[in-house]
Amino acid sequence: MPSGIRKRxxxxxxxxxxxxxxxxxxxLSHPPVNLASLIRGIYRRVARRxxxxxxxVSRVARRERRSKIVQAALRRELIGxxxxxxxxxxxxxxxxxxxxxxxxxx
Length: 106
Hints:
Blueprint: H1 3-17, H2 35-39, H3 42-50, H4 54-61, H5 68-90, H6 97-105
Helix pairs in contact: 3-4, 3-5
């Protein structure tokens, strides 16, 4: 077999093994208002834990670089943020929230 055909088969097989991005997506039906502030600083927090540069973490997140360790750390951080959102939704509203809402209406 010519070497060109063999290389082409390998690249096709490699592409077939990749997972779709849509398999790992999470959709929030009602995202919290402060979602941006919850996510802000995620690259810096992960970089500090792993003792790497935040720009490297950013590049791994954009798939410009590959690192299973950084990907796992990012995944853990995002899961923690999502769990925090779930806990906040289940928590009862503060007792003073009704009084504040009434003051704002007047």
